[in-house]
């Protein structure tokens, strides 16, 4: 799950609220959530997200209230390795370190949201020391700082950034000029293009939207491609494929599902897709039909296509098939994040 994007959507609507953000920064052993998982706390007791299977959240809420009152961050360690200790719950079998910080929707966080929702990957750097004045420094994937001068990190960390960007780490704790800093990779919401607004696309669009994908539905039929059938999608585009590609670009790491059930439209899509950029291409249809559809593609292009689409869970009907498709896409998404 893209916890940060979901949280940023929440906090934009409550700019004046006192908030605390909890992030898993270290794990020894196993845990329910991975490093980088986040949870948001409000002063009035509201919560958003999860850090564990439910065994840590109440205690984290107490620490979060303290952080909101003092406006000082803190680090908390939970040792879940002792299966005889029922204090935190049994089964995680790991030691988890969580960083809790005051979270204010200021111009800096607004800049972070704007970049992420425009499809950019951003590195955040923040001090782990316990002090009242908190700074979050923003850097592009190329290592350039993008915040204003008031939030300038006046330390040369170019080598550190380069090593971090090219590593498989999602989060890193680094010592800079004697102080600990938290470096974190933040990814935008993935865009999922669904070509074909038939009834079988409805459960797929709903499920994809709930799994942090920005869904773009493309179909020339206004009678089908509308909010009545697809209320959760981000964009509805009533274009034929040939027209769509004249005005729109598929970007790096975008996902594409072709389910028009219209041979010529599907062929037009494949003729215009930027195969080298697209993270995932899935075609819904019989094996025989798909083989005929991709017969003119080269071997490298054919390797990018998933068919039969979805994981083989013996799915039947639109709802189960949607689950199998999204399971496969989630698998591909996490493989890309680990590269």
Automatic annotation (TrEMBL):
Pfam families from the UniProt entry: XdhC_C, XdhC_CoxI
Query: Which stretches are annotated as coiled coil?
Result: none
Gene3D superfamilies referenced in this protein's UniProt entry, alphabetically: NAD(P)-binding Rossmann-like Domain
* The XdhC Rossmann domain, residue ranges: 192-329
Check the record and name the InterPro entries matching this protein.
MoCofactor_Util/Proc, XdhC_CoxI, XdhC_Rossmann_dom
Q: Which residue intervals define the domain XdhC- CoxI in the entry?
A: 17-79
Superkingdom of the source species = Bacteria
The protein in question is named Xanthine dehydrogenase
Which organism does this sequence originate in?
A: Heyndrickxia camelliae
């Amino acid at each position: 799950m893209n916890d940060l994007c979901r949280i940023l959507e929440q906090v934009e609507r409550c700019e004046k609220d006192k908030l605390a953000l909890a992030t898993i920064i270290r794990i020894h052993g196993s845990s329910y959530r991975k490093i980088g998982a986040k949870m948001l706390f409000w002063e009035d007791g509201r919560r958003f997200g999860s850090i564990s299977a439910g065994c840590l959240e109440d205690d984290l809420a107490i620490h979060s209230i303290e952080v909101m009152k003092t406006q000082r961050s803190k680090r908390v360690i939970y040792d879940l390795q002792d299966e005889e200790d029922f204090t935190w719950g049994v089964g995680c079998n790991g030691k988890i370190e969580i960083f809790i910080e005051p979270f204010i929707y200021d111009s800096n966080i607004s800049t972070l949201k704007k970049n992420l929702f425009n499809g950019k990957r951003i590195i955040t750097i923040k001090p782990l020391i316990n002090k009242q004045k908190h700074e979050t420094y923003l850097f592009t994937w190329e290592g350039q700082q993008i915040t204003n001068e008031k939030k300038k990190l006046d330390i040369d960390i170019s080598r550190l950034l380069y090593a971090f960007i090219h590593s498989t780490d999602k989060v890193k704790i680094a010592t800079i000029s004697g102080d600990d800093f938290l470096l974190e990779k933040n990814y935008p919401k993935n865009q999922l293009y669904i070509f074909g607004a038939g009834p079988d696309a409805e459960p797929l669009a709903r499920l994809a939207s709930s799994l942090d994908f920005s869904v773009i539905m493309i179909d020339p039929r206004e009678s089908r491609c509308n909010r009545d059938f697809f209320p959760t999608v981000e964009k509805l585009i009533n274009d034929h494929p040939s027209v769509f590609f004249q005005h729109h670009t598929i970007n790096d790491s975008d996902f594409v599902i072709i389910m028009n059930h219209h041979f010529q439209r599907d062929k037009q899509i494949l003729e215009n897709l930027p195969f080298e950029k697209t993270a995932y291409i899935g075609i819904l249809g019989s094996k025989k039909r798909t083989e005929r559809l991709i017969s003119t593609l080269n071997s490298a292009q054919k390797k990018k296509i998933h068919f039969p689409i979805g994981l083989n869970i013996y799915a039947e009907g639109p709802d189960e098939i949607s689950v199998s498709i999204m399971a496969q896409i989630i698998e591909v998404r996490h493989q890309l994040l680990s590269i």
